[in-house]
Amino acid sequence: MHELSIAYNLVEIAVETAEQNHLQKVDVLHVKIGVLSGVVKEALEFSFDIAAQGTPIEGAKLVVHEVPLKIFCPNCQKMHVLKKPIPLVCPECRQRTGEIVEGKEIELYSLEGGDVLEPSD
Amino acid sequence: MSQAIKQPRIVKIRENVLKKNDMLARELRKRFQENGVYVVNLVSSPGSGKTTLLTEVLTRLSNKYKTAALVGDLATENDAERLEKSGALVHQITTGTVCHLEAQMIEASLKQWNLAEIDFLFIENVGNLVCPSSYDLGENIRAVLFSTTEGEDKPEKYPTIVNSADVAIITKIDLADAVEFDKERFYESIYKSRPEMKIFEVSAKKDEGIDEWIDFLIKEKNLLGGQSIN
Ligand SMILES: [Zn+2]
Hints:
CATH class of chain B: Alpha Beta
Low-confidence stretches of chain A: none
Distance between the termini of chain A: 39 Å
Number of helices of chain A: 2
Shape of chain A: elongated
Number of helices of chain B: 8
Radius of gyration of chain A: 18 Å
Distance between the termini of chain B: 68 Å
Helix content of chain B: 25-40%
Shape of chain B: globular
Bound molecules: zinc ion
CATH superfamily of chain B: P-loop containing nucleotide triphosphate hydrolases
Oligomer: heterodimer
Strand content of chain B: 15-25%
Strand order of the largest sheet of chain A: 2-1-6
CATH architecture of chain A: 2-Layer Sandwich
Largest interface: A-B, 44 and 41 residues
Number of strands of chain A: 6
Number of domains of chain B: 1
Mean pLDDT of chain A: 94
Number of strands of chain B: 8
Largest sheet of chain A: 3 strands, mixed
CATH topology of chain A: hypothetical protein PF0899 fold
């Protein structure tokens, strides 16, 4: 399950970013996962809780936004969103295309948080 | 204990979660290029005949080129031992419970070798068709292997790895008739995730298609330039 390794990377970036932006507490992480990223949503959610343990963002909620596959069809000269990840075929003209615009990302999109009301120190 | 938050904020990040791996892979790719090393990342299920094919490829290439192989294994297996007979430099990376190789494992393993002396490096990834897909190892080419015994529909069950690969190789092609392997359907199954992908058909047992695969790699390597011992 490579999601655990991805989750550790995710936590590392989130902790760094929170520090840089002086977020004392992180409530929510928004992550974009493409349908062709090879990441299984449930496995990432499960792994995230393990990876966040003992870090400043422990207890934060992970929200996974699944990104459908968007392709560019060289025939129609248009972008299309596919209902299923495969086949990579233009839904309008049936032309095969390997030009993927979106749907392969594993991206930490944003953090929600702020300063705590009563700092412990 | 949950603490209340004053003035909740949203911080936009838009960062690739695997940026650390990707940055290291980019550095590795540059080092390989500078040293004239052509790198092949082999991915497949266990039992696809990957080690058998690699042994044969290394043996033939070793006549003219300096070759090396990094082998990723979950536990200690004897893949490395088999490969050493080919005359290539071989190093085994035991990943423990990790089901894929990452760029940092490659970097660490390279320390024992002088890259300038290597022409071809083959990375035999851990045997599965899911986890290796997200990790760039700095390779020039990624080859996904399927054996005829795995059935012609297998590629479409693993669209991510097929899409991430540059070429596909059908192994054990000598068994195609015996297992009623439908080649046309296999090609279609590949093209669903990777239209027009180049596909090689090989048999290590019957010596079919191996020279074609090797010639392709030599040609690709020469296109990239870099150093050569010839
Ligand atoms: Zn079209």
